Amino acid sequence: MLTHYHMDHVQGLFPLRWGVGDPIPVYGPPDEQGCDDLFKHPGLLDFSHTVEPFVVFDLQGLQVTPLPLNHSKLTFGYLLETAHSRVAWLSDTAGLPEKTLKFLRNNQPQVMVIDCSHPPREDAPRNHCDLNTVLALNEVIRSPRVILTHISHQFDAWLMENALPPGFEAGFDGMEIGVA
């Protein structure tokens, strides 16, 4: 599953153009341009699995709802659901579109993994959230556990000197989030 086709999110796919074996289904937004010539030379990658906003699909027993985000390229977050758990994955966004915010308020995730590239700012950031934006979003969504991701060096330095509110934590490489 891809959120969008910016290089920092798809660069690991390029070597698969020369792979051998069965096709690998890639789920993502219907971005006709994709990234560079990845669509033109997909190799093992099967990009025919485009998804649409708020249209639920099943992925190996997981119910997945694509959610539009605010970014410089067509970008989706995802609500991942099992019978007992909801996790929202919201990477690369500056705030949330109103329809996405309402959807998450009505389908409250137990865990929300959300872009938070910047420390608290007075001015509204572009393309990526700051901590003030994430705090305001969660006032509406009310997820009990918020994991911040896409953290910049500046925000990392801020985190070394400041505590996050209860229920908020910084994500890290290799972190596992259980969905029962």
TrEMBL record:
Transmembrane segments: none annotated. It comes from the Bacteria. Residues 2-151 form the Metallo-beta-lactamase domain. InterPro entries: Metallo-B-lactamas, Phosphonate_metab_PhnP, RibonucZ/Hydroxyglut_hydro. GO terms for molecular function: phosphoric diester hydrolase activity. One of its GO terms (biological process) is organic phosphonate catabolic process. NCBIfam families: PhnP. This is Phosphonate metabolism protein PhnP.
